[in-house]
Amino acid sequence: MTATWSSAATALTTDLQRIFGERLQSVVAYGSHLDGDTTAPLTCLALVQSLSVTDLEACARVATRWSRLGLAAPLVLPEAEFRRSLDAFPLEYGEIIRRHERVLGEDPFTGLAIAAADVRRACETQIVSHLVHLREGFIEAAGQPDRIAGLVAASAPAFTAFLRNFARLAGVTTQDRVDNTRQGARAAGVPDSLVAELLALERQSPIPTSDPARLFPQYLDAVERLALTLDTWPA
């Protein structure tokens, strides 16, 4: 563990050991903090043998302290429930698999595989929902460039996250967040120039207000093409 987040992860693990004792099986850190966004709270997954209301109450009592340490509320799951839900949350778990660090116990993802069919189905749902959101948002913007710019900027993180999910479907295995996004875009046929600008928006880099609005036609076209691609993607 690196110094930037190891102390917070250790503090969380100590609290979870106190609450769950031997029922705590493993803890892993994951998310944007590990990808280099040190302003983001550290997110962790904790697997336990059992989980009760009493356990949740004990976690709630230390939640404020966790927040002060830069920790998000951990995702605490019974181990059996975690394994049963792999098909229900293939994108979410896939993102954890892409970039995570073991803090305690065995790595829960060792030997686990998320079915490609589950990833494809979830990706299709994600991109179609994104397409609907963009169309509705554009109409609601009423032709005002600043509102269109806001729509593009606000939706950019969801689209770049989709590209990382598509990368997984296309067999890309790199852990690096930006490289994963770019490779997913190439596999999906999304222009590098568009991806570069959306990544800049995701990172909230300085960019003229007119630029996001200018991106909208190309952005919408890319999303429409991806929705069609996934509709015809081999099962």
Q: Summarize this, please?
A:
It is built from nine helices and four strands; from the N terminus they run αββαβααβααααα. The protein has 235 residues and is α+β, with helices and mostly antiparallel strands.
Write the layout of secondary structure elements.
Layout: H1 6-20, E1 24-30, E2 43-48, H2 53-68, E3 75-78, H3 79-84, H4 90-98, E4 100-104, H5 116-140, H6 145-169, H7 177-188, H8 192-202, H9 210-231
Parallel strand pairs: 2-3
Antiparallel strand pairs: 1-2, 1-4
Helix pairs in contact: 1-2, 5-6, 5-9, 6-7, 6-8, 6-9, 7-8, 8-9
**In order across it, which strands form the biggest sheet?**
3-2-1-4
CATH class of the largest domain: Mainly Alpha
Any guess at the CATH architecture of the largest domain? Up-down Bundle
CATH topological fold name of the largest domain: Four Helix Bundle (Hemerythrin (Met), subunit A)
Strand content: 5-15%
Give the helix/strand class.
Answer: alpha+beta
Number of domains: 2
Please explain how this structure is put together:
The structure is a single chain. The protein is α+β, with helices and mostly antiparallel strands and 235 residues long. It folds into 2 domains: 99 residues, Beta Polymerase, domain 2; 116 residues, Up-down Bundle (Four Helix Bundle (Hemerythrin (Met), subunit A)), CATH 1.20.120. Helix content is 60%, strand content 9%. A 4-stranded mixed beta sheet has the order 3-2-1-4. Helix 2 links the parallel strand 2 and strand 3. The radius of gyration is 20 Å and the shape is globular. The model has no long low-confidence stretch (mean pLDDT 91).
